[in-house]
Amino acid sequence: MTLNAHADNLLLPANIHPALASALAAKGYSQLTPVQLEMANGGYGEADLLVSAQTGSGKTVAFGIAIASALLGEAERFGAPGQPLGLVIAPTRELAIQVQRELDWLYAAAQIRTATCVGGMDMRNERRALERGAHLVVGTPGRLRDHITKGVLDLSALRTVVLDEADEMLDLGFREDLEFILGVTPEQRRTLLFSATVPRGIAELAKTFQRNALRIAATVSTAQHADIEYQLMLVRRDEREHAIINTLLESDSTSALVFCHTREAVRHLTARLANRGFSVVSLSGEMAQSERSNALQSMRVGRAHVCVATDVAARGIDLPNLDLVVHADVPSNPATLLHRSGRTGRAGRKGICVLIVPEYRLGAARRVLALANLSATMRAAPGIAEIEARYRKHILDTALAAPHPDETEAAFVAELLSQAAPERIAAAFLRQQLAARPVPEELWPLPIDAMQARKPDRERRLKGDRGTALSREPRGQAVEGGVWFTISLGRKQRADPKWLLPMICKAGGVAKGDVGSIKIDDTETRFEISANKAAAYKEKLRRPGSTERSIVIAPAGEHHHGQLGQAKPKFKHASKPSHKRKGTKPGRPV
Predict the structure, then answer these.
(1) Alpha-carbon torsion 167, 173, 175, 177, what sign?
(2) Local structure of residue 579 (DSSP, 8 states)
(3) CB 377, CB 93: distance < 8 Å
(4) Distance between CA 132 and CA 84 in Å, rounded?
(5) Strands of the sheet with 483-487, listed across from one edge
(6) SS3 state of residue 481
(7) How far is CA 40 from CA 20, 43, 63, 193, 500, in A?
(8) Cα–Cα distance between 33 and 323 in angstroms, integer?
(9) CB-based contacts of 587: which residues, under 8 Å, 6+ apart?
(10) Domains in the chain with CATH codes
(11) Residues 36, 12: Cα–Cα separation, whole Å
(12) What is the CA angle 49-51-54, rounded to 5?
């Protein structure tokens, strides 16, 4: 069964339990997502369900609606808590705590008592909560199994079980724990499996532990992540972090999530952003549970606005008002891309997903997007001028939105105006505002239009033109009638225009505007000098001390002379015999 992905202008269904309906109305739910509507209107009774629904589709509220009849029956509220009536199993601590938080408000009018059993938390507190009684238990597989084994958690009165993100639990190796837990529950229980995908392992689990489960598909592949705008941001190899900083500065997002591949990358980028003045926290697998909880709470209450995380550490988290996801590293596969991006654009909210793509990874990024059936707008990283224009607009808006001085302020405002001109006061306000904002990074622009039309790397490599395929894109603009020079530094010496350009200018006494294109090859770099400066530049190069001793700059096409003497040819002459190691046979490579 496939659902319509649009549920516009629908009021809450009348058959939702009254206690839940009042909670949904109080939360501002005027309409439900497709999966929530299906659980409310499906008329499945007490049938077992295998539900596939994408991340961010409102699954927690959906299964909360679905299990209400099993938990409450016809009653308006729960009786005294005892042995649990419902069990929800989630793959991670964060998701389990998040699920409990959602179900607490959804069932608040029914006076529910919930308990959590998750790894990394104090087992003694959990044991005391279970001993006091709970209507519903939410936990992770390993910790639930521990409590069952020790006789603390009795599931004999259980009426319904929900497996949330079941595919994630199998991926994380929890199959044995799940089989153990489900094996000690009553046979007549109702079992709901919610999963983003339904691979063979999930189908086998459903066949083993569900009774004639109905398959519900609450996703529409063509509308996947329809509320997310994808941007492919092309940057130079050495400017990835600068692009991340400028992306965060340009965005109006109040909450952003930045994904990195490794823990070390998370530590490094978190430190970099903190040094630049961002309110930032991090999530990685090496952190203690208390640290992870504090980081997430800082994001939820607004103390932090940026979270840097690894894929595993961010599984299952739901940050409110998250409207920007940044991929600091190109995702390795479409599943990773979709999982990361699904943190935003949730439950009808709009979101932006930015892939920071070094130019040499453009082909890989395009392939991942194509495999995920997604399209992205290619763009350049925001520059200083764009960010400063945004700063000025915000400062002006702040000033215009400020109320007129009240009675307690009027006297001092008059004193300020009597002693300082309005221009000086405005300048002081401007400087104060700018000082409180991080300074954007300088980026070298890339020819986005040309790169967008560029053929895939494989096609360019087949041409065999090493100079075209492997040299960097030219820096700057070609100067009319420019004269080409070379410098004896190339890719093998890790040449980079950032430090080459000042060296080129200093060597010949020219300004940056007199230097045109810069093309880096393996062993040398070619660059243009404007025609009206070329003769003086060449003359300046002949003077001693114009360059460092080990570096040679000369007009293109000339042999390099100077401190290094004649430059070595790039290739040996065919007739010149090769030097061989002792004992090797003629013609054999050494």
Answers:
(1) negative
(2) P
(3) no
(4) 11
(5) 515-520, 525-529, 483-487, 553-555
(6) coil
(7) 11, 8, 9, 16, 65
(8) 19
(9) none
(10) 18-222 (3.40.50.300), 224-382 (3.40.50.300), 455-555 (3.30.70)
(11) 10
(12) 165
The DSSP bridge partners found for residue 194 are 51
Tokens of 42: 């499906």
DSSP class of 455: P
Q: Do residues 205 and 166 make contact, with C-beta atoms less than 8 angstroms apart?
A: yes
- Read off the pLDDT of residues 453-476 as tens digits, 9 standing for 90 and up: 655 544 444 344 333 333 334 444
Q: Which of 281, 228, 261, 269 is nearest to 245 (CA)?
A: 269
294-303 burial string, b = 16+ CB within 10 Å, else e? ebbebbeeee
Q: Is the dihedral of CA 96, 102, 103, 105 positive or negative?
A: positive
Q: Which residue has the tokens 């909670």?
A: 23
- Give the three-state DSSP class for 283: strand
The tokens describing 577, both together, are: 């015999």
Which of 320, 443, 338, 426 minimizes the C-alpha distance to 381?
A: 443
pLDDT tens sequence across 133-183: 999 999 999 999 999 999 999 999 999 999 998 877 887 788 899 999 999
User: Which of 135-149, 273-287, 295-309, 364-378 holds the top average pLDDT?
Assistant: 135-149
Residues in the chain: 590
Structural tokens at position 288: 């203690």
